[in-house]
Specification:
The chain is α+β, with helices and mostly antiparallel strands and 148 residues long. It has one domain (4-147): Gcn5-related N-acetyltransferase (GNAT) (Aminopeptidase). The protein contains 4 helices and 7 strands; from the N terminus they run βααβββαβαββ. The relative contact order is 0.16. GO terms for molecular function: acyltransferase activity, transferring groups other than amino-acyl groups.
Length: 148
């Protein structure tokens, strides 16, 4: 059985994070990992994590407290195309939620995520772990909320 863990992105693994890739039809759904690693340098209260199955990197995530609404937001979550469809994304998302719950010392009530409405795989996985769709964003993205 695969053991999925989150590890910090650092100088030893950031290049591997940048090389992770999505299926061609998914690339328009999410910013690149390289962009995300740059963006996080300008965000307070955000973490980047590499997702591993045993010792093999399989994905990337970025999450933290959004300064506009004060909620936790998962800004990025991706599983490399080679590892999709194996239940690893669900296991990794549950670890992200668990980490946020441990981090939540100020009793923030929810975790928010948004995704492209055509990203059916993400929609199904988020629903399976407990996210509930809310409204659409100004750019047409679907918002979903996980109550802590």
């Amino acid at each position: 059985m695969a053991h999925v863990v989150l590890r910090s992105v650092n100088k030893g693994n950031w290049k591997e994070v940048a090389r992770l890739s999505l299926k061609e039809e998914q690339k328009s759904f999410i910013a690149s990992n390289l962009y995300s690693m740059v963006e996080v340098q300008f965000l307070e209260n955000f973490k980047t994590k590499a997702i591993y199955r045993d010792e093999e990197m399989i994905g990337f995530t970025m999450y933290g407290i959004d300064e506009e609404d004060g909620n936790y937001w998962i800004y990025r979550f991706m599983i490399d195309q080679r590892f999709q469809g194996k239940g690893l994304g669900k296991k990794a998302m549950l670890l992200v939620i668990e980490d946020i719950e441990k981090w939540n010392s100020t009793n923030i009530p929810c975790i928010m995520i948004d995704y492209h409405p055509d990203n059916i795989g993400a929609k199904k996985m988020y629903r399976k772990v407990g996210f509930v769709e809310t409204e659409r964003g100004p750019g047409g993205e679907q918002f979903a909320m996980f109550t802590l």
